[in-house]
Design a protein that fits this description.
Elements lengths: L9 H4 L6 E3 L15 E7 L15 E8 L2 E5 L2 E5 L5 E4 L6 E4 L3 E8 L17
Antiparallel strand pairs: 1-2, 2-8, 3-6, 3-8, 4-5, 4-7
Length: about 130
């Protein structure tokens, strides 16, 4: 048996680490540990949004629409992804936010995978 293999399901694994299924934040020795790249499987209900913009981004990112209708907000530009396979890439230093116009699934790839910015946890419970 090769211990350097992991077989999983993005829909099941993603909620365990805020959607991220590969990156520096996985345990050393886990085949999903990487300092080269991060991959996220994002499942977003209608109206889900990133209310706080990501600023000072030190990575390059690629976001691909799997299903739904998803808007990525960039400085001076709003990109609406509507067809499966639509994608947007932004480089280091580009601030961003996003909004799910309808139930959406997106795949995000960021590189390199470096410790740093982390969005605040979302509130839960009746006041959320």
């Amino acid at each position: 048996m090769n211990d350097n293999v992991y077989v999983g399901n993005a829909g099941q694994d993603a909620p365990l680490d805020r959607g991220w299924i590969l990156g520096h934040f996985k345990d050393l020795g886990d085949p999903r540990h990487s300092t080269d790249v991060e991959i996220k499987w994002g499942v977003h209900p209608p109206g889900d949004e990133r209310t706080q913009w990501v600023t000072g981004e030190a990575r390059t990112a690629l976001l691909v629409l799997i299903s739904g209708r998803f808007r990525v907000e960039l400085p001076g530009r709003s990109v609406l992804l509507t067809e499966q396979g639509d994608y947007v890439v932004w480089g280091q230093g580009v601030d961003h936010s996003w909004y799910a116009e309808e139930q959406s699934v997106v795949l995000t790839v960021r590189w390199p995978s470096i410790p740093g910015y982390r969005a605040p946890d979302r509130p839960t419970g009746p006041a959320a």
